[in-house]
Amino acid sequence: MSSSYGISLQVRHPVADPNDIARGLGLPAKRSWKMGESRSTPRGTALAGRYDTTYCAFDLGAGDDRELAERLRVVVAALLLKQDFFRGLRATGASLNLFITWTVGERGEMFDCALLSDLASLGIDLGIEPVIAFPLRTCG
């Protein structure tokens, strides 16, 4: 049974300009908005109200190679180069989340303490949204 994953970095900030965040990271934002802008769906349909915080999501890769932990090590090593930028964001009220969507196959992954320590040193939370790729068996 195959497994696949997608990795994104999500940044929420009380007032920052999303363009400044993207420039600071040197990455294009997959989706972003600025605090105070009119709300809309990802396809641009207007919604009621205004955004109460700035938000940016950055695509950091995807794969179906059963090597999620190794890919995370590469991603986190690249993010460590931006440690001062992350520190500045956090000091001004940002929250940072490395978010993984993961279609789980027949085995799990091990995220070792060095990887988790590096994430913690960056002040980045880890979120995982698993999708079950195989049917659940019932007893009976």
Write up this protein.
The chain is α+β, with helices and mostly antiparallel strands and 140 residues long. It has one domain (4-132): Alpha-Beta Plaits (2-Layer Sandwich). 29% of the residues lie in helices and 36% in strands. It contains four helices and seven strands, in the order βαββββααβαβ. α4 links the parallel β6 and β7 (124-132). α2 (68-80) runs parallel beside α4.
CATH architecture: 2-Layer Sandwich
Average residue pLDDT: 91
Structural class computed from helices and strand pairing: alpha+beta
N-to-C SSE string, H for helix and E for strand = EHEEEEHHEHE
Which quaternary structure do these chains form?
single chain
Walk across the major sheet and give the strand order: 2-5-1-6-7
Low-confidence stretches: none
Range of helix content = 25-40%
